[in-house]
Amino acid sequence: MDKNQRSGTANRKISKTIIYIVCIFLAVLSILPFWIMFVNATRSTPEIQNGLSLLPSTHMMSNLRVLLDKSFDPLQGFLNSFIISSSATLCTVYFSSLAAYGLVTYSWKLRSSFFTFIMCVMMIPSQASAIGFYQFMYKLHWTNSFLPLILPAIAAPAVVFFMRQYLLATLSMEIVEASRVDGSGEFSTFNRIILPLMMPAVATQAIFAFVANWNNLFMPLILLTQKEKYTMPIMVSLLRGDIYKTEFGSIYMGLALTALPLFVVYFLLSRYIIVGVALGGVKE
Known about the structure:
Blueprint: H1 3-40, H2 45-50, H3 60-68, H4 74-105, H5 111-121, H6 130-139, H7 147-150, H8 157-170, H9 173-181, H10 186-197, H11 199-215, H12 218-223, H13 232-237, H14 248-280
């Protein structure tokens, strides 16, 4: 091996080492806030007020008892959040996939205009329509109901856009034509053939949709006023206590319990995020 080859090998090793160091630093930087949250869930309020610590304390059970002694039930909040998040996620991924399938496989005059309209809807923040939406739900007597938090998930422009890009890159129209020749109906073709092909993208968007609905605070706080209907984010937002004493340990315990299901979802399905994003971003 000559001098240039040795120099090139050494430079590659140095570059690889730098990349590893940067990746480790970014990983630690990403994990640190969550670690501090879980550590503070084990500390008392005076300990938290005294400063930052990276080592767990011994007050986890007392913080949990304070949390359970509140006027609402965290277990009921978990159940409410799970019902809303799982139902809204199913509506989001299925109907968005169906809409994307229609935009890709059918040729009709206003297809481009319709897709442009969907993209324009993405620009409208939910806060801008919150007052009108609440008035509409009030007239339907749907306040203190989970339906206003589930059914609007059918219309998810960002998910439709992602699914459309995924189908443009991966779907072969020969498969659709062959199923039609075999006498398969459109819904049967979609449910039995197209939807299984879209599973990486569906799983990816399901994770994002579940996390977004689980963390949603704005609309549930407006629509839900009965304590037995509260979701976990609402309960955590109400953990401030009275004006004389705030139990910061119980607040961090509530935050940790709220974030725990999201960690489980990510750890179980994180590989689908990588596969789905990679395949969705590739175009022929």
